[in-house]
């Protein structure tokens, strides 16, 4: 499997099929074309229901900040259009480009895709850096307050993924077959509980 295919398979198993990380790993690792280290890494980055639940406040805060950014960009774009009357097609293009990053981030939160968080943070960071460079040195320092939501979005976009990952351990095991000692690795994912459930998930061993 390619990395893209592996990411899709991991996402489908955990999010769509609601399997535990351990169950998903056990099933996907049967494919001889799968690199076990890459599989474990991709699976660890797919949020489990319990992880999403535990970080709900941070996730909703991220969405709220992105909505503020959308509002700011709409106001700025419409203000610019009011001043210089942009071509309608160009105006539409500017709106699409301006809203892409925050909308992309919101989709990532709603669909449990960790890499969307990081990509959103990167895109907003690049845009903010470019905007700051364009500000005149004599500009009112208070104008910089408009960048507070952007800084918050960058920080949250980089921090939240670290809280949503499911840790795993990789243990080396030696086994003897017909007098020959061989080594293999087992991958054990952190135990988690579904919200409101006493049943353990991710508890099976390889």
How do you describe this structure in short?
Helices cover 62% and strands 12% of the residues. It has 206 residues and is mostly helical. The strands form two sheets. Strands 1-2 form a two-stranded antiparallel sheet.
Number of strands: 4
The termini sit apart by 20 Å
Walk across the major sheet and give the strand order: 1-2
**What count of helical segments does DSSP give?**
8
Task: Write a structural description.
With 206 residues, this protein is mainly alpha-helical. The chain has helices at 3-16, 21-28, 36-44, 49-54, 56-84, 88-111, 114-134, 148-164; strands at 168-177, 180-189, 192-193, 200-201. The strands form 2 sheets. It has a two-stranded antiparallel sheet with strand order 1-2. Strands 3-4 form a two-stranded antiparallel sheet. Strand 1 and strand 2 (180-189) form a beta hairpin. The longest helix has 29 residues, at 56-84. The chain is elongated, with a radius of gyration of 22 Å. 24% of the residues are buried.
């Amino acid at each position: 499997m390619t990395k893209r295919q592996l990411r899709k398979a991991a996402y489908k198993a955990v999010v769509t099929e609601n399997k535990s990380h351990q169950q998903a790993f056990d099933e996907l690792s049967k494919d001889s074309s799968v690199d076990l280290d890459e599989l474990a890494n991709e699976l660890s980055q797919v949020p489990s229901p319990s992880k999403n639940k535990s970080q709900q406040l941070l996730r909703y805060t991220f969405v709220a900040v992105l909505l503020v950014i959308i509002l700011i960009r709409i106001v700025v774009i419409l203000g610019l259009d009011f001043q210089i009357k942009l071509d309608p097609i160009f105006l539409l293009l500017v709106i699409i480009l301006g809203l892409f990053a925050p909308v992309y981030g919101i989709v990532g939160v709603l669909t449990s895709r960790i890499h969307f968080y990081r990509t959103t943070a990167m895109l907003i960071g690049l845009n903010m850096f470019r905007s700051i460079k364009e500000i005149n040195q004599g500009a009112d320092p208070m104008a910089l307050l408009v960048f507070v939501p952007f800084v918050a979005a960058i920080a949250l976009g980089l921090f939240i993924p670290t809280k949503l990952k499911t840790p795993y351990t990789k243990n080396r095991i030696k086994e003897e077959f017909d007098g020959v000692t061989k080594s293999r690795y087992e991958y054990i994912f952190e135990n988690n509980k579904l919200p409101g459930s006493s049943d353990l998930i991710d508890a099976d061993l390889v």
